[in-house]
Design goal:
Elements lengths: L1 E4 L7 E5 L9 E5 L7 E4 L13 E4 L7 E4 L3 E4 L7 E3 L6 E6 L7 E5 L2 E5 L7 E4 L5 E3 L12 H21 L4 E5 L2 E3 L1 H8 L2 E4 L4 E3 L18 H6 L3
Parallel strand pairs: 12-14, 13-15, 14-16, 15-17
Antiparallel strand pairs: 1-2, 2-3, 3-4, 5-6, 6-7, 7-8, 9-10, 10-11
Bound molecules: ligand A1D88.
Amino acid sequence: MAISVSPVNSNKVFALIESDSDQDKGGLFVSNNAGKTWSMVSGDNRLVQRAWYYIEVFTDPKDEDIVYVLSAPALRSEDGGKTWKRLTGTHGDFHDLWINPDNNKNMVIANDGGAELDEDNETKAIIITGNGEKAFVAGADISEFAHFDVSQGGELAAKGQELLFDFVENLSTPVIAAVNGFALGGGLELAMACHFRVAGVNAKMGLPETTLGLIPGYGSCHGNDTDRKHGDR
Ligand SMILES: C/C=C/C(=O)SCCNC(=O)CCNC(=O)[C@H](O)C(C)(C)COP(=O)(O)OP(=O)(O)OC[C@H]1O[C@@H](n2cnc3c(N)ncnc32)[C@H](O)[C@@H]1OP(=O)(O)O
């Protein structure tokens, strides 16, 4: 079983309980008097389908009626556990959830594919574009790393790939690159990491670092696992 006490109302306690599958009595139970009495709020089988492996329940830090259950899918209820909606993610088997105690729209969820950050689950899409009409992103300032040796260059590429490019590519919210001018080097690679690209009539794209003998380091040439699976670059 898993248990969660509401941070908003400590009398409200949720318990997620597995039962013998033949009897099918498992589900989510709630107590409104700090555990003295209990009633079942949901027998939805999705809530306990991974109980043989793990079982997790979390209550929102700001709203006692918002409850999360992590199972093969991640599920969210806004009515105290009666009805459930599935959260989208990059992978199944959700294991852990952190909700910012000061901002309940800021969460980190962990599944078998890694960790995901969600600032706002009501955001339907993200558009990245340049400020003004000249450039989407003109790329890195090469003078900042012109003196790097091979291992420092490798480290820069690996870190940038992980911090920004993989992060963008793995967001569950669709990200659109509105390319409104120069998209050069890392700027073009940023557009490539987005899920969709729309080019304006003044868009100019290129990898000028190759003229200096530098291999573009953020996935445009070699891609990552997702690209190998989907062949979409
Ligand atoms: C690991 C990642 C690697 C990479 O990203 S490699 C790719 C790096 N990017 C580039 O090589 C592009 C360099 N920039 C250019 O080729 C040109 O610029 C443009 C084609 C984008 C625009 O040309 P124009 O219209 O003639 O403008 P301007 O006078 O060259 O630039 C205006 C101001 O913008 C600064 N600037 C331009 N690109 C960058 C950059 N990539 N990083 C930092 N600053 C940049 C300039 O220095 C200048 O500044 P000031 O007005 O103070 O002289």
